[in-house]
Amino acid sequence: MDFSISCIGTGAMGGAIMRAVCKKYDVKKIKVTDKNAAMGKKFAKENGCAFAATNAEAVKNSKYIFLAVKPQFLGEVFEEIADLISPDSVVISMAAGVKLEKLEAWAPKARFVRMMPNVCAQIGEAMTAVTYKSNITDEEAGAVKEILGSAGKVEQVPEKLMDCVTAVSGSGPAFVFMFIEALADAAVRCGMPRAQAYTYAAQTVYGSAGMVMETGSHPAVLKDMVCSPAGTTIEGVAALEKQGFRNAVIDAVTAACQKSIELGK
Predict the structure, then answer these.
(1) Sheet holding 5-8, edge to edge
(2) Are 91 and 85 in contact (CB under 8 A)?
(3) pLDDT at 1
(4) What does the alpha-carbon distance between residue 129 and residue 151 come to, in Å, rounded to a whole number?
(5) What is the mean pLDDT of each run of 10 residues along the chain (265 residues)?
(6) How far apart, in whole angstroms, are the C-alpha atoms of residue 65 and residue 62?
(7) Alpha-helical segments (H) within 217-244
(8) pLDDT for residue 265
(9) What is the rounded radius of gyration, in angstroms, for the C-alpha atoms of the chain?
(10) Is 169 exposed, middle or buried (CB count within 10 Å of its CB: 0-12, 13-18, 19+)?
């Protein structure tokens, strides 16, 4: 590792990404900072990296600078660091909805990568999208993907898809958690103890997702494999369709995508 990494913000998302990064890279070259100094210091101590007292100190001598702050606080952060970012540095923003053009307006001398991870980074199973312009070299883009690969799967997408990514993989875990909770509630209703119900529901979702990823089969094909004629599963599928299950999911993702668009304005 011949470069340094810093991160402004150690909350849920920034913390999850940097926790994974600290496990893979030399912690002596990683520093973090947070508006909540106590939380930032605690994170640094737990993960062995350095704590920077200010945002200005965090960006100093850093090749890859992660911005893990909410969109509404970006302007305030850039007031502190815009003139301090080295032209050789790459700034990676996690702010939902905030386009590269707007980031460049805040810090004209900086070069940016937009990313959208998800909370599954906490267990090394994130789905992260990145997008950037031609001023990011192939070597730098590869390094960013490698760094983010510490926390899961990484893919490059055109910027026009970032709001969709935010809605599907960024917000998606919350929808999946709701489904797991509902599946467990149903199990309890049918007589299963609560703790066991969560295990069965969560492992079922985990295994089902694994089948989609590993087999490469269309989800409909896998669903049909489980649906025996006049069996229990097709009866449940019919009940879900009657309640508008698919349409509810589509509406949820569409609403999240629209919110992402609004945040970027």
Answers:
(1) 50-51, 30-33, 5-8, 64-67, 90-93, 112-116, 126-132, 152-156
(2) yes
(3) 66
(4) 12
(5) 90 92 94 96 96 95 95 93 95 93 94 94 94 97 96 96 95 97 98 98 97 97 97 97 97 95 83
(6) 6
(7) 219-226, 232-242
(8) 77
(9) 21
(10) buried
